[in-house]
What does this fold into?
Amino acid sequence: MTNDPLTAWNRTTPFRAWLGRLLGASLFVLAVPPAATAQPSPEGAATISAEPSPEVSAAAAAIVAEAANPAEAPEGDGGAAESEGETAAGGGEASPGEEGTSTEEAPPGLVLSELLALAANHPLVEASRADLDAAEARYQQALWAPYSNWNFTTMFTFVPPMGSFEQEQARAAADATDVQWDTSILDWGPWIRLGLSGLVPLWTWGKITGLWDAAEAGVEASREGVENAKDQIAFQVRRAYLTLLVARDILYLIDDGRGYIDDAREEIQSRIDRAEGGGGTLDLYKLDAKSAEVDARELQAQHLERVALTGLRLLAGLDESQEIADVPIAPFAVERRPLDEYVTLAERERTELAMLDAAIEAQRAKVGIEYARFFPDLAVALSAGYSYSNVIYDNHNPWLSDPYNGGGIGGAVVLDYPLDFGVDVQRYDEAQAVLRRLEEQREVLRQVTETEVTDAYEMVVEGEGRTEAWDRGRLAAKRWFISVMQGMTLGLNEASDLTDGLVAYFEDEFNYLNAVYDLDVAWARLALATGGGFLDEADLAAQ
It folds into this structure.
């Protein structure tokens, strides 16, 4: 595998399906993700979606759906003027004790911390907040629902006049015509009827409290969903930001390097013209080939810069007037801790695990509700009514029903006991089976999380080693190239020495940028895998 960032930019990492937001159930597929290609690519630089980044495994995403590099750029002239005393990781930057003492003004534009703050209002995060609002509304519904079984009715119409029982009996004996047709419609009068009825549960064997517990778990899952969306967007912002910085640094390196190539070509051509020896047409061909490669890499870097910049503008919601600071790339200023601390942090803070824990709590509440179905509900039924008509006789006989005039209230203790035991048993068994499945998926997700954390941690360890090694290599190549340039001036070296030194210098500079990019992306992956947010306050050392 090449360590050259430019030749590996076209590699892409397949997307995996991301977790759904509602607590639910489906099949779980255990899959440990392959190590993601760390080199920047145009596709990865501008990825903005609700999908998880490729660096998070599909396994973690699927389980929760069931339940609900660039580095520091050379300073100055691109590296030729760097002193031999620069440290491996610092690249000529001030030591920790010297931070804050520099009088240099910060470059204009937004830096990573400011971009992360702006991206906190990304539409994906706002959509998660809307889910949280909906879950809180459902929780309030659950609180009120058991005591909201009340109904108020009213009725109004016109009725014909009617007298007392004796009066109507006498009228019917004299005239058999129905009273409705025996009076003029102009004699009809109004009739109004009001009614209120309801049911207040007294004891439900845990059905009501189970409903509350399930709704509360839904709120907690949605709250973790907001944090999950923030973590996803933060990772995408960091990746796009790092890609932009490495593209810019490579363009600066190429711009400075062209001067060295031109100087070498001029020196070789001068030797050929003077027939001094030590240089020939073959050396010019080598330089032309290297120059063509640099041109191709410049086009790739320009493409990558534009795509990364577009992605950052979309992620952070920037307009054309807002610029991103042109700062050198460097490793994140964060100290690596032991692996077991990151594993513990992930088990405590990772949002997918927390969402699945909430799903388990909701399912336990459902199991309790299904068990309570085996017992009857005890409640108080209450009712009140009033009716009135001024054209109908008000009958006060307690043995006769008078729907036209009168009122009253009533209440009774009722026992509601549906006798569908066969269905209740199957519902209870199903709820228990779903709970067992969620608990097993939680354990699998914990294992997947540990695997992802370990993978990201080992990539950090490797990235730190590679960064230190390539920093030593680029400094050595720089000394080699400068020595050859001086020797050429004194006639002590041949042109082939110059081209070899130039190629080594550029290759090691590119390899160093690639190593630091790998290291920074590995840190971002570790932060995403743990969910701990330990990079929230961390910035690049060069900044």
In short: Residues 1-39, 46-103 have pLDDT under 50 and may be disordered.
